[in-house]
Specification:
Strand content: 35-45%
Shape: globular
Distance between the termini: 23 Å
Mean pLDDT: 87
Oligomer: single chain
Number of helices: 4
Number of strands: 32
CATH topology of the largest domain: Pectate Lyase C-like
Radius of gyration: 21 Å
Length: 427
């Protein structure tokens, strides 16, 4: 992923206090370290999870050194965070190759199982590399209020099982071939990229929403793309009452524009609750096979509505934002800042860098920390601190920033949030 928009409000990686969107999260956080090379407390992710008490009531942050961890991970304790320490999500990988064909069944073929509430994952990859020919799940999510931010989900058929409860996926990448997002949960994919990797295409989603559940799966301000044109369908109803909405998203030419929804077994797509609203791109159109929400109806189908439940959970949260900035002239750059969440003793934010009318090869953003503030981690940028001064430069994997284009990095901080005056220089 090349950008880090709208850094998720529920991610309390290393901080005290009650976080926006998390219910009854305790005041203290503990950190466990995993490193395959033996430089951490544990050499496997599962060993770190196993070390957490079954009755855990505090946020437990498991930091994972960059590397490939071939194992099965089952998170069955609440308030667990898995945090990759690489400079990008691709550098920390949890992978295995169980499959339905291998005798595990579909749901039990997962590489990662989330079975407890208030799970968080950030800056890593979860994969099933079985290959094609069988259902093979990368992640099975079956815990309430799960949040995934800047996570890559890799697989083929049935990559990501959103099994039950409520889940928020922000700035994630999901790839597969057939039904590679499926399940009965209420789930929101926000500012994310969904990729149909097979040239012959297939259905993206197979939803199994319960009839009594108003909200199923929402793709919000996301990008849908694929390996070939006019071969990908938006989804099909695994259950007769399946509910799916593609809202304000970019649909590429991979979508079958004339008939983007299909039947599944005895379940007709026309009886399911399949909807679109204000999508754009070559794959977006409006015909009798593409039910659309009205503006009035759309007010009841927001990310917040999908995830609120009975406890008012809102992982998206409120934010403080600097004024929008238009691209500068020539080869200059400018930057905007927003606080995306805060809690007692810490906060998170994001900075967006905007190139001018000429492409730039590199950029540097600087600002001065306020009293009591520290920046502990940055994603999609290289952090340097000196006293109260902070500079963040682009990593080489971001490449050239095209004229008028933007990129965003997120950061984790201690202290009280304030909107800083930013400087941006480029070359």
């Amino acid at each position: 992923m090349s950008t880090f928009p709208k850094f998720v409000a529920a991610l309390a990686l290393v901080a005290g206090g009650v976080v926006v969107g998390l219910t009854s999260t305790p005041a203290e956080a503990a950190t466990l370290t995993v490193a395959k090379d033996g430089t951490g407390m544990y050499t496997t992710v599962q060993a770190a999870v196993d070390a957490i008490p079954a009755s855990n009531s505090t946020r437990q942050v498991i930091t994972i050194k960059a590397g490939t961890y071939r194992e099965i991970v089952t998170v069955n304790k609440p308030y667990v965070t898995l945090q990759g320490l690489g400079s990008s999500a691709a550098q920390t990988v949890i992978v295995n190759n169980h499959s339905n064909a291998g005798g595990y069944g579909t749901s039990n073929s997962a590489t990662v199982f989330v079975k407890a509430k208030d799970f968080l994952a950030t800056n890593l990859t979860m994969s099933n590399d079985y290959g094609e020919g069988s259902q093979a799940v990368a992640v099975n999510v079956n815990g309430d209020r799960a949040v995934f931010d800047n996570v890559r989900f890799l697989g083929n058929q049935d990559t990501l099982l959103v099994n039950n409860y409520r889940h928020y996926f922000h700035n994630v990448y999901v790839e597969g071939t057939v039904d590679f997002i499926f399940g009965g949960a209420s789930a929101v994919f926000h500012n994310s990229t969904i990729y149909e990797k097979r040239s012959s295409g297939g259905p993206i989603i197979a939803a199994n929403t319960d009839t009594a559940l108003r909200y199923g799966i929402l793709f919000y301000k996301s990008t849908i793309t694929g390996a070939a044109n006019n071969v990908t369908t938006l989804g099909r109803p695994w259950g007769p009452a399946a509910q799916v909405l593609y809202r304000e998203s970019s649909l590429s030419a991979t979508i079958k524009t004339a008939q983007p929804w299909t039947d599944m077994s005895e379940n007709s797509w026309t009886n399911a609750r399949f909807l679109e609203y204000r999508n754009t791109g070559a794959g977006a159109s409006n015909n009798s096979n593409r039910p659309q929400l009205t503006d009035a109806q759309a007010a009841d189908y927001t990310p917040q509505k999908y995830l609120a439940g009975t406890d008012g959970w809102n992982p998206i949260g409120a934010s403080t934002t600097t004024a929008p900035t238009t691209p500068p002239a020539g080869g200059a750059c400018t930057a905007t800042y927003r606080t995306t969440s805060s809690w007692s003793g810490g906060f998170q934010g994001e900075v967006t860098v905007i190139a001018g009318s000429t492409a730039i090869a590199s950029w540097t953003v600087g600002w001065t920390l306020g009293s009591g503030q520290t920046i502990s981690q940055v994603w999609n940028g290289k952090l340097t601190t000196s006293g109260t001064g902070v500079t963040v430069t682009n990593e080489t994997y971001n490449g050239t920033l095209a004229a008028g284009a933007s990129t965003t990095f997120g950061f984790l901080a201690t202290g009280t949030p304030t909107a800083p005056g930013l400087t941006c220089s480029s070359s």
